[in-house]
Structure formats: structure tokens, C-alpha cells
Amino acid sequence: MLVRYLEAEGFATVEAADGETALARAGEADPDLVVLDVGLPKLDGFEVLRRLRARSGVYVIMLTAKTEEVDRVVGLTLGADDYVTKPFSPRELVARIRAVLRRERGATEPEDGRLIFSGLVIDPGRREVWVDDEPVELTALEFDLLAALAAHPGWVFTRSQLLERVWGWDYYGSDRVVDVHVAAIRRALDDDPSDARFIATVRGVGYKFVGAPA
């Protein structure tokens, strides 16, 4: 039903009935966006999303019949761009798809999954970072936080959203821990917060990545 509706709205589609086939076809078709059901056979949607994110920055909208907040948070933490719960109207889904596709990724995303900006390269596969062609040492958590921000250039993240994406939905500490780690990342990248090259503070809200596309 969704395929027929999306094609009537002008989208070219490729469909898959299970998680393994979805991964294979996503690799072959190189889609602009994936509409991913959580309840897939063979590999569930969360595992498909995890494997997609290991190799690609493709936009992903999760579909699920579950309404529990934990499922939504898990999907967003793994890197979903949006989350739609069933039942929903096809018109609503199309509106969400168009909204996501209007976003700017801002980075060059080669097949190896690297995020490349002017003066900054982030390699999620090797978990390595270079600034002006020089390697930078980050802790595992600092790397995850930088990668979460850089995957969505221009997006403003609240501290709570970053806690969900990086620390996990079950983290109960102070959200000011985000500030401590952002400060550490800035020192490592030699990024002056008063004239941000990579991570800007949005006063009263949180942070956003402002790195220029390569």
C-alpha cells in the first residue's frame, strides 16, 4: 500500500520484505531515504538501522506499531532521522519524508561512511578523527558525541537529546555532563567557542554542528 502511495506521489521505490533483503537492496540501490519497519523478520529494524549506520548516512524513518517511549529513544539513539508510530496516514508519512529530505547533511559521505568537512574528517568505521590532516585523540564517548553532532549539520540538539543519542536512554545523571565533554572536544579540535569552527553553542538550548562542507 505504501509503495503504491509513494509512487503516486512521484517517488521511485525499492521494497524488501525482511531485514537481510533490506540491507542488500539498500546497498544496491543507494536510496536517498529508507522507510524502515521495526518488526521485520530475520533482522529487526533496529539491527538493520545499526548496520546501515555503520556504512551510510542515508536518511531513515522508522515505522512501528509500538508506542513505548523506549522504542522511540532506541531508534533515535541508533541514528534514525524520524519515527512514525502506527496507525498513521500515508499523507502524514509523505509529509515526514519530504521534511527529512529537505534537510542538509552538509558533509561528503563516501562509500566508506566517513564524514568530510572543511578541515575535519570523521571516520566512524575506524573511529578516527583528523583536523587539518592531523590525527586527533578523543575518548570513545567524545568520538560518539562529535559523530552524533556531525551527522546532522545545522541541527540544534538539546542536552537531553544528546544524552539519549550518546549516553543512552537509561542515563540518569546531570545533563551538564554534555557541556564537559563538548568542552573537551573543542580543546582537542582547537575549536574556539566564541568563533566556532565546528561546534556552536545555542544559548539556552544546546549545541549544533557548524562545520563547512568540504
Can you walk me through this structure?
The protein has a four-stranded antiparallel beta sheet, covered by helices on one side. The protein folds into two domains: 2-101, Rossmann fold (3-Layer(aba) Sandwich); 115-209, Arc Repressor Mutant, subunit A (Orthogonal Bundle), CATH 1.10.10. Helices cover 39% and strands 19% of the residues. The model is unreliable at 106-111 (pLDDT under 50). It has helices at 2-8, 19-29, 45-55, 69-78, 90-101, 140-150, 159-167, 177-189; strands at residues 33-37, 59-64, 82-85, 115-117, 120-123, 128-131, 134-136, 156-158, 199-202, 206-209. It has 214 residues and is α+β, with helices and mostly antiparallel strands. It starts with a helix and ends in a 5-residue tail after the last strand.
Span from first to last CA? 40 Å
What radius of gyration results from the CA coordinates?
Answer: 18 Å
CATH architecture of the largest domain: 3-Layer(aba) Sandwich
Strand content: 15-25%
Q: How many alpha or pi helices?
A: 8
Series of H and E elements: HHEHEHEHEEEEHEHHEE
Largest sheet: 4 strands, antiparallel
CATH class categorisation of the largest domain: Alpha Beta
Q: What would the average pLDDT be, to the nearest integer?
A: 84
Helix/sheet category:
alpha+beta
How would you describe the oligomerization state of the chains in this entry?
single chain
**Uncertain residue segments:** 106-111
CATH topology group of the largest domain: Rossmann fold
Spatial strand sequence of the major β-sheet: 4-5-6-7
- How many domain modules? 2
Helix content percent band: 25-40%
Can you tell me the CATH superfamily of the largest domain? Response regulator
Shape label: globular
Number of strands: 10
